[in-house]
Amino acid sequence: MSRLKKIKKIRLHREGTTTLVYTFMGMAALCLLVHFGLHITLLTQVVIVICIIIYCILLNFFQCPVRLYEGDTEKTIMAPCDGRVVVIEEVEENEFFHDKRLMISIFMSLLDVHANWFPCDGIVKKVTHDDGRFKAAWLPKASTENERSAILIETPEGVNVLARQIAGAMARRIVTYAKEGEDCFIDEHMGFIKFGSRVDVYLPVDSEVKVTMGQKTTGNQTVIAKLK
Q1: Catalytic residue positions, numbered
Q2: How far is residue 151's CA from residue 46's CA, in Å, rounded to a whole number?
Q3: Average pLDDT value for the chain
Q4: What's the CA gap between 223 and 210, in Å, rounded?
Q5: Of all helices (H) and strands (E), which one includes residue 24?
């Protein structure tokens, strides 16, 4: 199988198995209840159409695309997820670096695939998880107040890159596959966030930004920055 065919191959993420099965069973029960309980054909048809639309959105949400980046990965920072760039700014990062960092944030809507990829090659130096609130993910305080997981990566050039998975108003589960001490690579899944959220990437301030505010990104395909 060619690399191009592998890129186009799509499967469902294992994180969605339980949700998809129980949702299908619940929707089927609802449709049967409306049809045999109320005996209103038009209402049954409307309910079926609504259920199909909602289920199709869930199927898209739980996609697990197999994507291979075919460019040069040296000093390259990739988009860790599908979504839209909502923040490009210098911030004080006080959890790991305690100095100024360039933060690029990508917000994922309910219509985006929610699988997350490692933004760069390297070694996972630290993985943390902090409980918190569930504010809207696009708000600035979400980075420090919402439930979140942080993955600190040291690139082959010795540069530290921080990726932070952040829960949103509807997100209730962050899954992180990264393990401390393990090698990580572009093309590998870093984790998954259920139901609306964002991922922040913290870089040295002299990094060359390759995206613009509001730009749509494709996880593991869109280059968001280059390290000096």
Answers
A1: 197
A2: 45
A3: 84
A4: 6
A5: helix 17-38
